[in-house]
Structures are given as structure tokens and as C-alpha cells.
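The data layer described in this paper is built around a simple, fixed record for each protein. Such a record has a labelled line for the sequence and another for the C-alpha cells. For reference, a complete record is included directly beneath this paragraph.
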Amino acid sequence: MRILVAGASGLIGTALSGTLRGSGHDVVSLVRRPAASAAEFQWDPAAGRIDDVALKGADAVINLSGAGIGDRPWTRRRINELGTSRLGATRTLTAAMGRMDTPPAVFLSQSASGYYGNAGSAVLRENAPAGNGILARICVDWEAAAHEAPAGVRVVTARTGVVLSRSGGALGRLLPLLRLGVGGPLGNGRQYWPWITLPDVAGAFEFLLSAPLAGPVNICAPESADVNSLITALAGALHRPALLRVPAPVLRLVLGQLANELLLASQRMEPPALAGAGFHWQHPSLAEAAAWVAGRS
């Protein structure tokens, strides 16, 4: 397949592009800088500009583009950027598809577990309603924008959970502390994080290119875990203690609303659509995932 990827330089995009090329697919990337090779096309999603030649002959488009959720404080300006960067990129892609005589057959557009807001211990499948909060509102608008793709395009909105990586991503700041034995749970640790390893999230996106699924798909491991369990498993795999809990008031004092929605919110998400379609995880259990993060598998 010829696959156009927006956001190919990010954590998921880099892993996914490598996975797709390893499977023999022709991967083309959208970049904001001048294109450096025939496998790149320049675009400006904020201005709605894209070279339509990039989509010519594409069988699928994968949209991973958007400003980083947790890499800067949530000022009013940053919150606005979180939404506009996602909507701008998505609408630029759907508009370009609409100008084509033969648009791509598949549009995989990333969403996030934040769609569900803070849902406590309720089990969240794809038919669960949207929650409240900044991230939930962004995800609702983001998914609606993806469905502006032309009729006949199979649209999948991938609600991705917390991606476990050996470096960067959600554990970018926490993992080095755990390796030193000075990390620990966040808040009371009873909030659920819908986790998935980086190889599995790349594998899930590749699977969705041909799986008979449309609409929302939860991208997470089949085993749910709260933060206490997650941190304990990671620290155990690293042979380190994890005793230094960070209280919720401290997180809120330092990070503000970002702490409430990104670190302290609870989403007990399950992946019935992926499982029902026959997807196989490399790391379905927390023990396997922790061993992989620690470099023991």
C-alpha cells in the first residue's frame, strides 16, 4: 500500500513508519519544512495548505498530527493550540481528499483516551459517552473533523491510551526517575491508565489499515491497570523501589489543569473492537509490557 502519514516524526509516527516500511509498504510523510526527499511533501496545516500531489495514488492516510499534550504548561494560549493544531491538520487532510477524483480508501485519524474524561472505575468501551473537560471537548471535535472525509472513505478514529516506550512519550520524565529508584505513583494511584506499548500501538495502526472496522477504536492493551499497579510493575522490572508518591495537591500546584486531566484522570478503557477483529498484542499483559520497557524481552 501507498500510505501518507501526517505526524511521522513523533513518537508513534516514527515507530509506525518503520513498522510499515518493514512490512513492505510505501510510506510518504508530510513535513512542515521543505521536503528533503521524494518520500516527503511539505504542508502547512495551520494555513490549510497541502500539495495535493502527496495524496495521488495513496491507498490510506494516517493522521497523527497535533501539538504535544503534556510537554508544556496549559496556558490559555496552549490549550487553544492543542485544539486548533488537531482540527487544522485533520480538516486540511479531509479537504484535500475531497478534491481528489479517487480519494484514499482509508483514513486513520488519531484521537485519545481523553475522549472519556475522568470516568473513575467505569469500564469504557467504544460506545461509552464522551466525558467532560478540555481533552474530552478536543477529542469530540477532532473526531468530528475526521468524519468530514468524503463519502466512501473508511474513517477510523483511534482513541489511543498511554503509550509505554523505552524512552520518551508518557514515561519520558518518569522512567529515568524509576531507573534511579526515586520515582513513585502519582496521586493516590487508584486512577486507571489505559496503557499500550509502542510496538503494539504501531501494530494496531497497521492492523486497522485492512481490518473491517470504522468509527472509534480503543487502542490499549487488554489488561487494565491503575497507576499503582503500573508503577509497581515497571519498578519491579527495573529492580528498583517505587516509594516516593507525588501527592495530588502537589501535582495540581505545579501543573494545574494538566495534572487533573492527564495524570489524575481515570479511564478504565477496554479494546473490544480490536480484540473482536482479531488483533494480537505483542505485550498483552502488564508484566510483559514492563519487561519490554526495562529491556528484558
Summary: The mean pLDDT is 93. The CA atoms of residues 72 and 129 lie 28 Å apart. The first strand starts at residue 2 and ends at 6.
